[in-house]
Every structure is written in C-alpha cells, then in structure tokens.
Amino acid sequence: MKFIGGRITITSAATRIQLTSHASIDANMKLIWFSCNADPDNTGSGFIGNSDVSNAIGVTLVKTATPTVLPLRQIDKKGSIDPSTVWFDADNNGDKIEFLALFE
Questions:
Q1: Theoretical Cys-Cys bridge with 70: which of 25, 34, 76, 81, CB 3.0 to 4.6 Å?
Q2: Main-chain dihedrals φ then ψ at residue 10, nearest 5 degrees
Q3: For 61-68, which contacts have Cβ atoms below 8 Å and span 24 or more sequence positions?
Q4: Residue 70 binned pLDDT confidence (cut-offs 50, 70, 90)
C-alpha cells in the first residue's frame, strides 16, 4: 500500500483538474481510501466529482468544513477506483484542494 498526501491547484476556475495531475499519482494505481478538503487559504469553495464537476455539479468542499472522506474499500476488502475518474474544480483561480489518499 502507498499513502500520498498533497495539494491540487485549480489554475483557472471552471477548468477541471484530475487527481492524476499530481506528480505522485497515475491511473494504474488503485485508490482505496480518499479524504479531501478546500485549502483554508482559498478565496472560495472547491468541488469534487466526475469529469463534469463544476460549482453546480459535484460535492462542495467548503474551506471551514470537516474533510470529505471516501472509504472506497469496505469490510469485504474489495473495491477501488481509478484515480483518473476523480476531478476537482474551484470557485476562483488559484484555489487549492488538499488530499490524503491510500492506494493498493
């Protein structure tokens, strides 16, 4: 297993960024646990979802909220997702998403 923590910068608001844009993550890895939140220094909120994520579609990550946790592997020890299916967006240019991820 591999544990990776990092930060994704949304260079341009309304321009989606994949989790695999982080240098330590590639699409061949199996994501089994994931936590993320909006950077506390952001101007606005961040968003997590599929390739269509936006400020109208997806889960809102408010900078003052508890991190969002996605326990992808359940008790049966099965379940993982392709990290290239995880996308982010933000309200403002330069806002960041902080994450912790566990890969098999």
A1: 34
A2: -90, 95
A3: 61/36, 61/37, 61/97, 62/38, 63/37, 63/38, 63/39, 64/40, 65/37, 65/38, 66/37, 67/35, 67/36, 67/37, 67/98, 67/100, 68/35, 68/36, 68/37
A4: confident
d(CA 103, CA 54): 26
Positive or negative: CA dihedral 9, 40, 51, 6? positive
88 contacts 48 by C-beta, under 8 angstroms: yes
In the chain, what are the domains?
2-103 (2.60.120)
Q: pLDDT value at position 77?
A: 67
Q: What are the pLDDT digits (tens) for 12-37? A: 999 999 999 999 999 899 998 899 99
CA distances, 21 to each of 38, 57, 64, 66, 78 (Å): 17, 20, 25, 24, 26
The tokens describing 43, both together, are 């101007």
